[in-house]
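Hello,

Our lab assistant flagged a job as stuck in the queue for most of the afternoon. It eventually completed. Since we weren't sure the result was trustworthy after the delay, we are filing this so someone can double-check. Below is the sequence as submitted and the structure that was eventually returned. Let us know if re-running is recommended.
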Amino acid sequence: MVKISCNKVLSNHSGSVTVVKYNSDGGYCLSGSSDKSIKLYNVSKGSMIHSFEEHGYGIGDLVSTSDNKQLFSCAEKQLYQWDIASGQVMRRFQNAHTDTITSVCVNVDSTLLFSGSSDRLVKAWDLRTKSINPVQILDDAKDTITSIIVNEQTITHNHSHGHGHNNNNQPHTHTQKEVITSSVDGCIRTYDVRMGTLVTYEDTIPISSVSITKDKKCFIASCTDETIKLIDIDSYETLKEYKGHKNTVYKINSCSNFDDSLIISGSEDNDFYIYELSSGKILSKLSGHSNIITHVDSHPSKNQFITSSTDCTIRIWDQSE
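-- returned structure --
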């Protein structure tokens, strides 16, 4: 039984905290708030390192690059690129979308930025050029985009033809690059960037977020009918549903922990929910926040979690020894 408790509360924001995410190695985290600022923290110390304050509106989403050098954020129709070390805005994407930008995502080598919006579009921006136009527009969604994931993995094919000890049978590898989006229209769309194909998981229940398990085998979809669905990435079969948390109004997310044994979720009843992935059971329902938990994230290599809330705080939860 995993015992989780809150060991730090970060109270640096003066408004509702809409998003909190670890950096790539989990040593730091970044939060965005309706107070129009983004804060960077050292997680183990529980201390704020910097406050990024250029946006004119509340922060909708943010993401840092895998090398931890850059940060992308959205606030209403503003889309900004920041240099983390200096705290300066490097680029403002002009007229990126015609409606509120809801989600941002960057690929592994930091060459492409994806933005999703209430205008139903997902746009891809080439970060190697200063072009004011997106390199691609995905226009299949029928309603607001709620999240974007880039799934990049190297797939190895063993072409063995049974010719004894023939050393020419080198395994062939290719990088699969997929862009996965969720929308209020109830669909998860998977775009294969290399092949130019689209596969759609269709439901009627609005999806407030989609994430992907660490083993890349399943989607985790938070739906506004107060369920989280574990969906097989290949067959689109729903393998498990998780129920208990409250979510009918807010865009609340869920994700798996570092080893895919747990699923964590925010909730509108102010509690932090931890489900067992395999059984669907609620393992923990943790109180502490005094208002809605808007966003959750899991440390990349241990059972540590961060949660943000409309109570203006962030909580860091650790496994008790």
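-- support follow-up --
The delay was a queue issue, not a problem with the job. The result is valid. The first strand starts at residue 4 and ends at 10. The radius of gyration is 20 Å.
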